[in-house]
Amino acid sequence: MTQPEKKMNILAIGPHPDDVEIGCGASLAKFSSKGHNVYIFVASDGAAGGELEVRRAEQEISARILGINEVYWGGYRDTEIMIDRHTIASVEKVIHQVKPDMILVNYHDDTHQDHRNMAAITNSATRYIRNVLFYETPTTQNFMPNVFVDIGTEFLAIKLQALRAHTSQVNRTNIANLSIIQVAESSAHFRGVQARVACAEAFHSLRLFINI
Question: Which of 37, 78, 135, 197 has a CB 3.0–4.6 Å from the CB of 24, allowing a cystine?
Fold first, then answer.
C-alpha cells in the first residue's frame, strides 16, 4: 500500500521584502500547490529601498499570490542586520513556532551585508534542522548549485506575478534597462538548462537529508 505523502512545513528566510520571491518564489508556490505549509520570515523592513509601509504591503500581497500561510517580520532596520544573540534568537523563535522540515535562505557569499549576515545567523539558528538550502539573488557571488527544482512555465509565471506585486522594486536592479522580472526569467531559463528542464530554481545545500 502506498503511504500518503507527508505534508511538510517549509520556512523561507529573506533579509528584505522580495528576496525570497527572487530566490525561491516558484519553489514555494509549488510546495503550496502540493498542500504543504509554507511560511516566510522577512528580517528587515526594506525601508532603505523604499517606504516601510509600502514595502510591507507589497510583501503581504506577494505572499498571498505564492500561497504563503503566514509572513513573520523580524523588525530589523534595512542595512543594519547584525550577527548577534538577539537576531539568532529571533530566527530560532520562528523556527520553534513553524517547526520546519526544510529551511531556505539566501547564500552566504554576497555583496550585500544584510544577505551575508542573514545567512550566518540562519546557519547558527538551524543547527538542528535536517534540510537547509541556500538560494541565489542578483547580488550573490560564487554560487555553485547542487539542487534544482523544476518550476516549469506554470510556477515561473506565479513567481513573476509575485515579483510584480513588489511594484516599488521592479526596476531597482541597478542594471540599465533590466527589470527584476527579466532577471528572474533569465535565471530560470539558465538554471533550467543546467538541470535539463525548461525552467528551474537552483539551490546549494548546507544539509540535505535523504530518507531511504
Answer: 135
Three-state DSSP string of the chain: CCCCCCCCEEEEEECCCCHHHHHHHHHHHHHHHCCCEEEEEEEECCHHHCCHHHHHHHHHHHHHHHCCCEEEEEEECCCCCCCCHHHHHHHHHHHHHHCCCEEEEECCCECCHHHHHHHHHHHHHCCCCCEEEEECCCCECCCCCCEEEECHHHHHHHHHHHHHHCHHHCCCCCCCCCCHHHHHHHHHHHHHHHHCCCCEEEEEEEECCCCC
9-207 CATH choice from 3.40.605.10, 3.20.20.70, 3.40.50.970, 3.40.50.10320: 3.40.50.10320
Taking the whole predicted model, whether its pTM rises above 0.90 is answered as yes
Per residue in 46-90, pLDDT (tens digit) is 888 788 899 999 999 999 999 999 999 999 999 999 999 999 999
